[in-house]
Amino acid sequence: MRYRAWEPGMKNNVAISLQKVSKRYQGGYLAVDNLSLEVKKGDFFGLLGLNGAGKTTMIRMMVGLAKPTSGTIWINGVDNQVDAFLAKQSVGMMPQELNMNAFNTVHEVMFNHGGYYGMSRSDVAKVYKDVLHKVGLSGREQMTVKALSGGMKRRLLLARSLLVKPSILVLDEPTAGVDVDLRKDIWDLLLSLNNEGVTILLTTHYMEEAEYLCKNLAILHHGKIIDQGHISQLALSNQKRQFLFHMQNNIQQVVDHAGVEVSQKDERTLSVALDQGASLSTYLQLLENNGQHVDYVSSPSNRLEQYFRAQTEN
C-alpha cells in the first residue's frame, strides 16, 4: 500500500480529516492556522466564513491544489500528500471561479476533465451525456464555454465535478451569482446526491442555503474553526426560524401545519415561522401538494445569520 494508514483514533466512517493543518503563504500571511476538522461519510457539511477566512485555501489543500505548510489531510483514509492521485480519485470539485478554456466545447471540457482523473475516452463517453442531462445541459455538447450563459457555465462546472462519480463532492460557493431558478435546481440535485450517499462539503455566503441543505456546520474565522456542530445545536436553536416564501402565482389559501406559523404578507408572499424541530422541506412539500409552488425562499431574520455575525464580528 502506498497510502498512509489511519492514525490512532481515526474512524473508517470519516470521509475528510484535517489534523493540525496550517498554510502560510510566501510573505508570511497565515491563511489557515492549526486547523483540525472531520467530516463523516454521508454528511452534508457546511463551511461558513467571511471573505478571507481561509475557506478556499482549505479546500484547495484538500483537493491537492495547494500544499499545507504543516499538518496532514486524509481523504477516505488516504493521505493526500503521500498519494495525491489516489486521494483525488474519490473527490469531485466545483470551484467558485470559472476555470475553463473559453474556446473549448462542453464536450471537450468533459473529456479533458475525465483525462485528468485517468478515465479513458470510452469511459467518459459512457457517462458524460447522463451527467449533462442531470444538470440540464443536454444538447449543448458542441457549444463553446464562451457561448454559454452564466448559469450554464455554473451547470457545466457542476457536471464536470460529477463526471467521476465522486463519493465526496466539494463545492465552493456553487450558487454565487445565479438566479433563483438555478439555485433551486442545484439545491434539489445536491440533496438528491446526498440522499444517495455522496458526502458533500459546501462553502456558501447564503445563510438560508446553509440552513436548508446542511446537517453539520463549522464557522471559519481568521483561519481557525471558532465553532462547529449539528445545525440544530448552533444558531440559538430555541428560536423560531423565520422565512419568506415567494410564490410563483397568487396565493389562493394559507396552508396550516403543526409547528408552523404562517401569514400572508401580500398576494404572492407568505411569512413563515418554524418551531424548533419543524421541517422546512416538509412544509415546502405540503405547499407543492396543495398546488402552491414556491419560486424561492428568503430569510430576512435568519437565526443562523444572526449567530454567524455574532461569532465573526471581531
Automatic annotation (TrEMBL):
Give the molecular function GO annotations: ATP binding
Q: Which stretches are annotated as coiled coil?
A: none
Query: Gene3D superfamilies in the record, alphabetically?
Result: P-loop containing nucleotide triphosphate hydrolases
Indicate yes or no for the key word Acetylation: no
Domain ABC transporter residues, every copy: 16-247
Q: Which UniProt keyword terms apply here?
A: ATP-binding, Nucleotide-binding, Transport
Concerning Pfam families, the annotation shows: ABC_tran
- Know the name of this protein? ABC transporter ATP-binding protein
